[in-house]
């Protein structure tokens, strides 16, 4: 029998839910890093860039407002994740939908390197629910019939870890399917 896992949000100090006060920019420019960051490809999304996203530049800064952030994987926007060194090293052992991983300088709002932890940003393949979910054997429920009570994947689904971009019906779009 195969085992499936779904990642859950950690509810500890440094792992806030909701808006992530961190900004991924090509380079630190003092307080100006917040200006127009939403126009960058990894925030604006594929529609703005002809249906696909360009690869990350080789040098990026992730500027955090709260230096207590501590996590292994976190969504940075709808189009990228922030990964710890530990998480990045583990996923190399599995077949994943992660297609672009770049190291980042992890900085505070003053441009100083935060802690000793090393972080990366990662983009994923754009995989839709229709591509991997077996809707005939899955079951929707919840108060509004909009949450999966039973989630089953298609037989030909061949990933250990994938990102389902239109996964509003599951608690996290980054799914771990490690058998």
Describe the protein.
It is elongated and about 55 Å long. By secondary structure, it is mainly beta. The mean pLDDT is 80. It contains three helices and eleven strands. A hairpin with a 2-residue loop joins strand 4 (73-77) and strand 5.
Order of helices and strands: EEHEEEHEEHEEEE
- How confident overall, as mean pLDDT? 80
Topology, number of strands: 11
Low-confidence parts? none
Which structural class do you get from the secondary structure elements? mainly beta
- Widest β-sheet, arrangement of strands: 2-3-6-7-5-4
Strand content: 25-35%
* Tertiary shape: elongated
Number of helices: 3
Distance between the termini: 9 Å
In angstroms, what is the radius of gyration? 17 Å
Main sheet overview: 6 strands, mixed
Residue share in helices? under 10%
Can you give keywords for this protein?
mainly beta, 179 residues, elongated, 6-stranded mixed sheet, single chain, 3-stranded antiparallel sheet
Quick overview:
With 179 residues, the chain is mainly beta. It is built from three helices and eleven strands. The mean pLDDT is 80.
Which helices and strands occur, and which strands form pairs?
Elements: E1 5-6, E2 22-25, H1 41-44, E3 60-64, E4 73-77, E5 80-84, H2 85-91, E6 98-108, E7 119-124, H3 129-132, E8 139-141, E9 147-150, E10 161-163, E11 174-176
Parallel strand pairs: 3-6
Antiparallel strand pairs: 1-11, 2-3, 4-5, 5-7, 6-7, 8-9, 10-11
